[in-house]
Every structure is written in C-alpha cells, then in structure tokens.
Amino acid sequence: MWIADQWKDYEVIDCSGGEKLERWGDYLLVRPDPQVIWDTPKNAKGWKKKNGHYHRSAKGGGEWEFFDLPEQWQIRYKDLTFHLKPFSFKHTGLFPEQAANWDWFSDKIKKAGRPVKVLNLFAYTGGATLAAAAAGAAVTHVDASKGMVTWAKENAVSSGLKDAPIRWIVDDCVKFTEREIRRGNRYDAVIMDPPSYGRGPKGEIWKIEDSVYPLVKLCARLLSDNPLFFLINSYTTGLQPAVLSYMLHTALKDCRGTITAAEIGLPVSANGLVLPCGASGRFES
To answer: What is this structure's pTM?
Structure first.
C-alpha cells in the first residue's frame, strides 16, 4: 500500500461505524466512509467537538450539519496551499491520500533532467496539477467543470504558482484527448483520476467501467517517444489494483518501463492502522 503519511495540516484521527473523524487544519469534520465497516468505541475527543458532520441519507445523498465552521479555509501540504469548503456529497475539494502519488511523480519530474509535459485529466481542484508544476513540469489541466477549474486556479495563486506554465482547459476529457491526437500534441506523462460516473459540459455520459480503458488507450497515443510516467487512480469498487495494472500493461505494451499498482491509504492516529482510500496504477520509465 502507498501511504500518504507526510501531512501536517491533515490527519485521520479515528474511524468507526461507517464514519471517519478528520482534522483539516484547525477544524474537525466527521464524514461517511463506506470502507469503515467496523464498529469500535468512539473514544477520541474530536467525535464530540466536531465542526462539521455530513449525514448520509437512506434515500441517497445527504447533507451537512455545521458547528462553527467557516465557509472556506486553507491547509498546506509542503509548499502547496489548498482552499477548502464543504460542498455536495461530503467533499471538501481535496483528496489527501493523493499526496502519496504527488510525492512519487514530483520526484520523477525533478530527477528527469529534461523538460516534462504533463497532461492531467479529470483534474478537479488541481492537487496533482500543482504538485507537478511545483516540481518543474508544464501541465495541461483538464476538467469538465468550470467551477472546479476556477477553484484550481485559486489554489495555484495561493501556492505561488500563478505564473507557472499551466494550461487551464474546461472540456470533456475524452473529446479533448481526441483533439490533441489530431493536433499531434505529445506528453511525457499522463495523470487521470476518472469518476465512477459523470457528465461532460454538453451532457456526455461517463461510466468508468465502459469508458476508462478506451481512454487509457487514447492517452497512450499521446505519449512522447520517451514517456516518464502514467498514473491512473480509481475510487470505484471493482477496479482493484490488479485491474489497473492489467489495463496499463495492455494499453502501454509498446512502452518500456515498469508497472506497479497498489491501494493508497491514510494513517489513522487513534490506532496506527491505515485506512484504504482507493487504488492507483503507475507506469514509470
């Protein structure tokens, strides 16, 4: 398992009964987590001193309950600064477990000894984009949501990366990739964090089981002659590390390098265990 254990402004304090207690900077949030199927005593003090609690509904979805929580605040990861705010379906605008991947590819970019062009698809609020840019890469950031791209730009400014070589693109990721192939553009690295289900800006339907492998094959056609890395993340039950590895081996069969895949996770302060938070597949030359 790849563990994001370098955080100072974030921690999973405890998890029990389908929920996790987290510290985001100065604030404590309780959010549901389907992986937490055990029920242990909630002895950590934060359970009763939470600033926000997302309650799942039996009918699907849910809603936030707030106790002295600002509309927006910031946390840092190393040299990066992220704006947080609770919004739809329990999210805050950041997936802290991805720091395990940020550290991995940042090190590869810094040691590449050459200019590196990165394509980041389903790029959300820009965590991976900013990590790659801070490491010295030129990044193309693509997301179908204009609001998320705006949020990512705000994170870039706060992280001192306002003038970094980042292209901000609001577009359907598949259609953008197809156009880049026609244009003859190439990239040294690809990052993708596809949702289980979603819609593009013009109503395009994305269902990961049907759509992700064709997109991986498309992205393989965008890779330069000497690709540095390819990263794919999954939070979808069924797309286990072995599946991600198999996809990369098949789609990148003409690329020379190493492919690995594993769960990613976050350490839990209360007991020293690790909470699994999805999976990642990595190709590296």
So the answer is: 0.94
